[in-house]
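Subject: sequence -> structure tokens, single chain

Hey, anyone have a minute? Need the predicted structure for the following. Not urgent.
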Amino acid sequence: SEPTSFTAAATEVATAATWGGRNTDRHMSSRTPSEFAPKSAGDEPGFSVTTSKPEPIPFTSITGVVIQDNTAQEGGGLHITGAGNGLVVDDTTIRSNTAITNGGGIFNTGGAVTVTNSSLLRNSAGNGGALYQDDGVTSVTTSCIVKNSDTAVNYFGGTAPITATSNWWGDATGPAGVAPGYGDSVSGGVDFSNFR
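Reply:
Had a minute. Here:
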């Protein structure tokens, strides 16, 4: 049977250099990190979570993972598509990923995504360097959102607001963009309250 969570082992650093292109439509329970190569423009993102098929996604959580150095059209680090299942990301670093268009770190179009105790660092995209929500519902809390391209957290559609509370934005004044601070920027439709 497929795993319901993906957790990096204490002795293993699961980076996109070994885990790039980890597409959840595939059967993964018997795969090892060495079977996944880094991805570049036009290929899959670091992790692609899709519920476009009738069966549920193979896992519902990602914990203790580093997703880095991936490039994709949308969702360089994580690309979440489809409704019906939620994805929880905890204690994970999503860094230095690139999207040609939207969502350098995370692209959500129709999923339910909860990110906690994680870092979104130095991701870049045309829109939403750290996160782009096209549809669905997204929450990023008690996390670090720093040095991502503008607009770092971008709401386009779906459930508003994006919950981005209790985060560190790279500056004590909080996020920039529609917010009055000097940290990473946010668009309208983002609740950035209680910033650290």
